[in-house]
Amino acid sequence: MAKYDKADLERRMKGAVESLRGDLSGLRTGRANTALLDPIVVEVYGSHMPLAQVATVSAPEPRLLSVQVWDKSNVTPVEKAIRSAGLGLNPISDGNTLRLPIPDLTEERRKELAKLASKYAENARIAIRNVRRDGMDALKADESKKEISEDERKRAETDLQKLTDDIIKQADEAAAAKEKEILGK
Questions:
Q1: pLDDT score recorded for residue 35
Q2: pLDDT tens, residue by residue, 67-108
Q3: What family is this?
Q4: Residue 18, burial from CB neighbour count under 10 angstroms (0-12, 13-18, 19+)
Q5: Tens digit of pLDDT for each residue in 43-71?
Q6: Count of C-beta atoms within a 10 Å radius of residue 99
Q7: Mind giving me the DSSP string for 32-49?
Q8: Residue 158: is it exposed, middle or buried by C-beta count within 10 angstroms (0-12/13-18/19+)?
Q9: Nearest Cα residue to 16 out of 137, 164, 115
């Protein structure tokens, strides 16, 4: 069992929150956001490449994404990848540029996305709690090896719990903000 390392535990907890923020940024909210297309992979040149490696994505208007494909021969595969990504977007081809109007979300779809945001947040909370458990186990192991006293362990556990609560609060705030954005409240 590894020694208790608060900095490492904090880094891992913050990593879970950053991962949550990344997941949340990929949820469509009815407004153009370039992160929406980040997970799209395009099959070009005989291999699968992220969209960002074959095109430039921008949001020139609040309800429009623009995908500037660098190589004209890749326009069709990029268009196909966007259509098949399940985002409900229909690219409009304009030479090397694909325009993606962002349609309004239906109330039903908004609720689905809000549930998905909640699920992402719960997964982040679980990851954070798992990190806390690892820290608690390390503290108990250190105490059993007589490397720290019982008082030091309890003090460190209290600190770790406070850190966990703070990080979970950050995750909850990120999810709540995204849900509010999705539901348009």
A1: 80
A2: 999 988 888 999 998 888 777 788 988 888 999 888 777 888
A3: Belongs to the RRF family.
A4: middle
A5: 888 888 898 889 999 988 888 889 999 98
A6: 15
A7: --GGGGTT-EEEETTEEE
A8: exposed
A9: 164
CB-based contact 76:52 (threshold 8 Å): no
Dig out the tokens for 117 from the structure.
């945001």
Domains, the chain, ordered by start: 6-25+106-183 (1.10.132.20), 34-101 (3.30.1360.40)
**Residue type at 86?**
G
Nearest residue to 79 via CA among 59, 55, 62:
55
Q: How many angstroms separate the CA atoms of 4 and 10, rounded?
A: 11
Report whether 79 contacts 55 (CB < 8 A): no
The residue count for the chain: 185
53 DSSP 8-state letter: G
Q: What pLDDT, in 10s, does the model give residues 2-44?
A: 688 888 999 999 999 999 988 888 776 667 778 888 888 898 8
169-174-176-179 Cα dihedral, nearest 10 degrees = -160
The structure tokens listed for 78 are 């990029």
